[in-house]
Amino acid sequence: MTAQMSNSTHARETLVLGLPLIGSHLAQMALHVSDTVMVGWYGVVALADRERGASGMCVVLGGGRGIAKAVMPMVAAALGRDDETQVRRDTRMGIWLSILYGIAVYPIFWWSGTILLALAQDPEVAALAQDYMRIAGLGMVPALVVTVLQSYLSALHRTQVVLWVTLAAVALNIGVNWVLIFGNWGFPEMGARGSAVATVSVQVLSLVVLGIYAHLLPELRRFHLFQRFWRPDWHAMGQVFRLGLPIGLTGLAEGGMFQASALMMGSIGTVQLAAHGIALEVAALTFMLHVGLSSAATIRIARFDGQGDRMALRQAAKVAVVISFGVAFASVALLLTAPEPIVALFLDLSKPESAAILAYGTVLLGVAALFQLADGMQVMALGLLRGVQDTRVPLILAAVSYWVVGIPCSYVLAFQLGYGGVGLWLGLVIGLFCAAGSLMWRFWRLVR
Q: Which letter does DSSP use for residue 13 in this model?
């Protein structure tokens, strides 16, 4: 019986699910990094245009991905109930909503130049960024459908294919970037627009590969995923939307908190902002470890919830939290024992300003060590709550923690009390700990 599974079995199954998901999240980051690096090699102006476009793309994409990610706990719970029909219904309507969302938001990309001009951007910069975004926006639909298929396959414990397809996408992205950004092999030199074409190409190919795999793999044919795909299922669509919208809004609330922190850090100083960016990149890398584990916990908790096995659900949750703490403490040890070498990886130490950035970044990584405990616990709590399909109240708890607690604390510590960038980061840590505590309380109260 599942209720009699040992802690070691729970840990092993969580890691079997989680490690490929961690790898796929890290590979997803590598896609962004490869674009940034290669466009940066091409030119500073092209990089600025691409970053403006990419930041806007991430904001819009984040809202849609919440709906796509809702498919994961819904499919896992349906499998726990042995309801294969519901697996197909939820996944199909997740694809429908992703397509509708991608089409609905494309005008934002088409008229992005007008939007940037309204935000007081330079006309030439706005025009160039619009060229990038009109191309990149075409990838919105395939990117979201890929996320749905990844959620579907992960819930079916097919995480290995998710990892390998993402790794292949990184390699392909680098190759197409090299050809189109710089105009190699006789192709036109497109600069930042070449990066956008590469991104869309990779998203479309990933969609094709995952779609064929999901449709043709003998073990998955019984779900008939694309059978009568054109038929709407309004009830299932409403369920996916109601679960997914708060997930997307929670991600936007957290992303907005870090965007606000960057604006505040920029008013403190250039060196501090540069160090802040480096520290956030390091924190984002370690955060991917927790995101992968959180997704694995979502799948396992949802499966036990569908089976109605509350004892196994609680046991699996406890084991997932312990593993997350172990990863967090390992990250803390790394950041506290080797901060200078880590920051130095992001700098050209021959430049005169690098010494000041290195010194300040080393201090911020010390505070980032606290991030590991807070951020790891809050994202694990969100994953556990999604496993029991609770997303509305967590959205409120998270948004209050980020914006009513975190940002005000950052402002007071940084500017009113004079602690500068360190105070700003401590405020973020306070907000994240508030989110972690309230969300964990919410989960254990629900499953007690």
A: H
Whether the Cβ atoms of residue 125 and residue 49 lie closer than 8 Å to each other: yes
Q: Is the separation of the CB atoms in 432 and 373 below 8 Å?
A: no
Distances (CA, A) of 424 to 44, 260, 376, 378, 418: 29, 11, 19, 19, 10
Q: Position of tokens 């956008």?
A: 196
Q: What are phi and psi of 231, to 5 degrees?
A: -85, 125
Q: How many angstroms separate the CA atoms of 181 and 365, rounded?
A: 34
Question: How far does the chain reach from its first CA to its final CA, in angstroms?
Answer: 20
- The string of DSSP codes covering 15-35 is HHHHHHHHHHHHHHHHHHHHH
8 Å CB contact between 262 and 79: no
Mean pLDDT by 10 residues, the chain (448 residues): 71 92 89 76 65 66 84 94 92 94 90 79 76 88 94 94 94 92 86 88 95 92 87 92 93 84 80 80 86 95 94 94 93 88 78 81 85 90 96 96 94 91 91 95 93
Read out DSSP for 164-178? HHHHHHHHHHHHHHH
Q: Closest Cα to residue 157, out of 21, 269, 40?
A: 21
Tokens of 80: 């726990």
CA distance 13 to 300: 9
Q: Which residues make Cβ contacts (< 8 Å) with residue 36, sequence separation at least 6?
A: 47, 50, 51, 54
Q: Which residues contact 13 (CB under 8 A, 6 or more apart)?
A: 300
What token pair was written down for 102? 């991608």
Q: 183 is written with which tokens?
A: 């105009």
Alpha helix stretches (DSSP H) within 217-269: 234-268
384 Cα distance to chain centroid: 16
Distance, CA of 229 to CA of 231 (rounded, Å)? 6
Reported residue count of the chain is: 448
Comparing C-alpha atoms, which of 436, 418, 201 is closest to residue 321?
436
What one-character DSSP code corresponds to residue 391?
Answer: -
313 close to 385: Cβ distance less than 8 angstroms: no
Report the distance separating Cα 166 and Cα 154, nearest Å: 13
CA distance 158 to 151: 10
Closest CA to 136 of 42, 247, 39, 27: 39
- Largest alpha-carbon pair distance within the chain? 65
> What's at 385, amino acid-wise?
L
